[in-house]
Amino acid sequence: MQALVFSRRFLTACDAIIIKEGSQERVCGNIFKNARSLSNHKRRAHTRQGTCDVKVIEKNGKLRLCGKICINAQYLSIHKSKAHSGQRTCDATLIGEDGQLQPCGVICKNAGALSSHKSGHHSGKKTCDATVVGKDGQQRPCGKICKNAYAFSRHKGRHQKRKPVNVDESDDLSLQKIK
């Protein structure tokens, strides 16, 4: 481990050997303000790839190992906590049709799916700022208010399907020169 002096602070550089594309070895060289940060970096970034050994049940009922290969221990840990956390129920509070507060109650297969559900369906209102051409031929912002990110994403797809109209060009084919 190397120690560098920088502005009266001791900095430590990671001396782990890494292999980049093309099989060339080099020293990592990342610099950290203390030994703890360096230790955390080495544990996260320089552990060998790992394979997930959690047993999962397939649709046909057979038991098998997950087998997901992760590049290091940190990503393996993240994978296990998100993909193999078991069913989770969304506890976000909604206003029901009767005006009363009630839990969402959607059941997701794991923590990752729950996170995706919450960011899409419980993100709050989103306003579309895409430029559209009105019936009068003038460009203006769309302005549609969508109830959540999921609805907003579906709405934005409508704008992508349409070709942008250039108001400066005429659609009259008779004005074009015939060659």
Topology:
Elements: E1 2-6, E2 9-13, E3 17-19, E4 25-27, E5 31-32, H1 35-45, E6 50-51, E7 55-57, E8 63-65, E9 69-70, H2 73-83, E10 88-89, E11 93-95, E12 101-103, E13 107-108, H3 111-121, E14 126-127, E15 131-133, E16 139-141, E17 145-146, H4 149-161
Antiparallel strand pairs: 1-2, 2-5, 3-4, 6-9, 7-8, 10-13, 11-12, 14-17, 15-16
Structure description:
- The structure is a single chain.
- The protein is α+β, with helices and mostly antiparallel strands and 179 residues long.
- It is 26% helix and 27% strand.
- It has 4 helices and 17 strands.
Radius of gyration: 27 Å
Number of strands: 17
Indicate the low-confidence ranges by residue numbers: 172-179
**Major sheet attributes:** 3 strands, antiparallel
Structure class: alpha+beta
What does the average pLDDT come to? 79
Number of helices: 4
The sequence of SSEs as H and E is EEEEEHEEEEHEEEEHEEEEH
Shape descriptor reads extended
Helix content: 25-40%
State the end-to-end CA separation: 75 Å
Strand content: 25-35%
Q: Which strand order spans the largest sheet, edge to edge or round the barrel?
A: 1-2-5
